[in-house]
Write a structure and sequence with these properties.
Blueprint lengths: L4 H12 L4 E8 L2 E6 L2 H10 L2 E3 L2 E3 L2
Antiparallel strand pairs: 1-2, 3-4
Protein name: DUF4283 domain-containing protein
InterPro entries: DUF4283
Length: about 60
């Protein structure tokens, strides 16, 4: 079962911070697009991974 957009938004905001992620959009069921405030913020998130989500890796 795929997570809801609301669930994914809450997950990333709690772990990455509101200031890093500007928005999250669902492209299709189970596929989300993350928009970051800056490339620096995106790079920080990428470097600090992997990010487990519901006992599965969040692939970025």
């Amino acid at each position: 079962m795929s997570p809801s957009l609301y669930t994914v938004k809450n997950y990333v905001r709690k772990r990455w911070g509101d200031e890093r992620v500007v928005s999250v959009q669902e492209q299709r069921r189970g596929v989300f697009i993350f928009f970051f405030e800056s490339k620096i913020n995106m790079d920080e998130v990428m470097e600090k991974g992997p990010w487990p989500f519901d006992n599965q890796p969040l692939i970025l």
